[in-house]
Amino acid sequence: MLVQLAVGDAYGATFEYAPASFVAAGNTLADYSCIPPRPGRYTDDTQMTIAIAEALISGEPWTPENLADRFFNAFHRDPRAGYATRFHALLREVRDGQDLLARLRPNSDKSGAAMRAGPIGLLPTVADVLHHTEVQARRGPPRWPCTTATTTTGRCPRSRRGSTTGWARPVAGPSRGRDPLAHKAG
Q1: Is this model's pTM higher than 0.85 or not?
Q2: DSSP class per residue in 5-74
Q3: Domain residues of the chain, as ranges?
Q4: Is 165 within 8 Å of 183 (Cβ atoms)?
Q5: First-to-last CA distance in the chain?
Q6: Fewer CB atoms < 10 Å away: N or C end of the chain?
C-alpha cells in the first residue's frame, strides 16, 4: 500500500498547481512528466505517511508529541522538496518534535492530514481509526478531521454548528451521538 501511495504521489506531484491544459495533455499515465525540480519523486505527503506508518508499528503512545517527533525525524533523514515553503523552513529550523509542536500555526488551509492518513485506515476498528485520525489532524483547521476521517472511514463528522464540514456527508452507522472528531473551539 505504501509503495502505491508513493507512486501516486510522485505522479500527481507533476500536475499539482499546473495549468489545466498541461494536465489534460500530460496526464496519460504513460510516464512521469518532467517538471523541475522533482519529476518522479514523492513529496512531503508520502514522507509524512511513512512517519505515520512508523508511529503505528512502533507501539509508542499515539500522541501529538510522538507524531511530531516522527515527522521531524522523517524530514531530517531525507530533507526533500515538496513541503510548503514555510513548513519546510520551519522543519529546518526546529530542534525536535516538541519545538515543532510549539511553533506550528494551526490555521493552514492545506489537506496534509488527509494525505498522510492512509495507513490509519488499516487499524482494526472504526473507533481506532477515528481516534488516530483525530490525534494526527488535531493541529489542523476544522475541516481537516472531516477530510481525514472521510478518507479512512467514509464518515464525516459534524461541526460544532451541527452541519457537516468538508466535502463529504456523514455515513449512517453504529457511531451515533457525539462525534469524537467534532471540532472543539479553543
Answers
A1: no
A2: HHHHHHHHHTTTT--HHHHHHH-SSSS----TT-TT---HHHHHHHHHHHHHHH-----HHHHHHHHHHH
A3: 1-42
A4: yes
A5: 36
A6: C
